[in-house]
Amino acid sequence: MKLLIVSHVVHYEEGTRLYAYGPYAREVDVWAELFSEVAIAAPCRKERAPGDCLPFARRNISIIPQRETGGETWRAKLRQIILLPLLVFDLVCAMRRADAIHIRCPGNLGLLGTILAPFFSKFLVAKYAGQWTGYPGETWSVRLQRRLLRSSWWRGPVTVYGAWPDQPAHIIPFFTSIMTREQMMRAGRSAVRRRSDGKLRVLYVGRLTAAKNVEAVLSALAQLRDAQRDLSCTIVGDGPRRARLIEMVKELRLEDRVTFAGSVGFERALDFYDWANVLVLVSETEGWPKAIAEAMAFGLICIGSDRGLIPQMLADGRGIVVPPGDAQALATALADIATHPASYDAMRARAVAWAERFSLDDLRDALRHLLSLWWDVELAGPVIEAHDRIDTASQIEAGEPSDSIRRSAHARRT
Fold it and tell me: Which residues does UniProt call coiled coil (predicted)?
């Protein structure tokens, strides 16, 4: 069975190797285990990939380059309008050659794919990788994509992060991962070795953009600088705010406390989870923040914003939530962790127990389960031996994805 993936993610060609952002590449590899061929309709640059990219491991993955669009300036928007007929033509050509179509939203190509795909295949599946509920400042195109995916126009399952009330049967609570079971075992060993020592080794992992509120992290650290002698922070990632954040570190006299690691490969990122004991992510909006799930698996205390799926992930004493970008609330939480470290041991244990269920292997099995039930087809790859394990692995706070899968598949057949 030939699968077409429509994605706005930028890909990179280096010789015969195809690269993309690491977590995305590993997830697409999982999809490629289930299909004989996978073609990706997405932007592609013939240049060296950034440090946070990985090569696709599966040989049955190919790229159908799409024109790269986007931007907030009027020139960029005008260019999108001019290129629209060509974008539609390219996607139509790709869809005609596919048996099944997977649309990844939100994004410009995702919007076009959502509109076009129902004309070309009955085997449809979409993934909404952002915050499924509305949030301040979101664009009209993001709202439109959610509206289309919720409607009867989209005749396939839509996987979303988290369980939300009053959703149609085809909206399926789901999860993602980048860690293999072996890496999960490494994380578990690291969690067992952790000792509460009162030191603050703070970690941030992610893009350095305005929406991530890394400035609030630095402001919180500045409030603790004098009171907490054993305080250090590593910022892993890159982005347009990097220069401003480096300047802010100097202004706050945090040069001896804060280190910028830049973009790193995933194996190197795991070393930072080993080192840290607290992860902070106080973004304005989040879908499924992989950094939080990974940090939980390593037994870190996670402090996240009360947006998107984060409150569900950190519920029931698995972590701490604060308002997005609230430096004072973040500083208060960090100070309490440093002052009463042993009181957070139970939180670490609950976090590890929750996160260890979400490996790449579990993702593959859950995808197979979803698509087999909805499409009524037999997919390639390893056979699932125990649906009960998948049901457990797929459970996300406040929802049972596997139950939703069964209900939506039943509704389709009746």
Answer: none
